[in-house]
Amino acid sequence: MAPVDLASWPRTEDAALAEQRRLRPLVEPRGAAPAPGSLVAGVDVAYDDERNTVAAAAVLLDLGTLEVIEESTAVGPIAFPYLPGLLAFRELPAVIDALAGLRQRPELVVCDGYGLAHPRRLGLASHLGVLTGLRTLGVAKTPFGFDHQDPAPERGAWSPLLDRDSGEEVGRALRTREGVKPVFVSVGHRIGLTEAVSCVLALTPRYRLPETTRHADSLCRRTLAESLAAHS
DNA sequence: GCGACAG
DNA sequence: ATCTTGTCGC
């Protein structure tokens, strides 16, 4: 996997918007779910704004057993400010570095955030998919700017996540645990929405968030804390 | 113009 | 995202 060249990474809002327009037509919003024994990666990042440092983690799990197979991390400078709708430019350089450190290639990458459920239909999950060619999906914890009805209380229940203007279904509010707030699933790249939802259910046998996300979250936090200690 | 706003 | 303790519950 080609590492990111930070020298040519967008630095301004205009450049980032132009890059989204360029990549958007390359998203493939259909495709099968990976087979039960496939390797699935979870990715996440943690920040230290004081030191302009970001730590990313990629954790590889067996989709069938949910056992951790491999871990990889990357630490680097924060590549972009946080602007809603441009999150990918902040997170992806470190995420791609972490993914590049995995010895085995995942058949799916689960991202913390959105894919097609995005103002310009290029959230970080889709962006990552187009840049790497990997199959991706997004799982977000809040509805961003979209409308939805509360799904029925049982695990597996869902309702469409709708664009406020067009009414288009851009994702699904999915109940991964009975009686707990839903998560918001959207297609990233090379997978359909129904298939993405079934993957997320396979990854949430017990908690609200996918096992992939939970492992990646704790690993990137640990990595950031260790890099902090090492530099003081 | 104002508020809302993935992480 | 991050600042932050104890506490209720499975």
TrEMBL record:
Class of enzymatic activity (EC top level): hydrolase
Cofactors, names only: Mg(2+)
Catalysed reactions, semicolon-separated: Endonucleolytic cleavage at apurinic or apyrimidinic sites to products with a 5'-phosphate
A Gene Ontology biological process term: DNA repair
Family per similarity comment: Belongs to the endonuclease V family.
Physiological role: DNA repair enzyme involved in the repair of deaminated bases. Selectively cleaves double-stranded DNA at the second phosphodiester bond 3' to a deoxyinosine leaving behind the intact lesion on the nicked DNA.
Name of the molecule in the record: Endonuclease V
Species for this entry: Kitasatospora kifunensis (Streptomyces kifunensis)
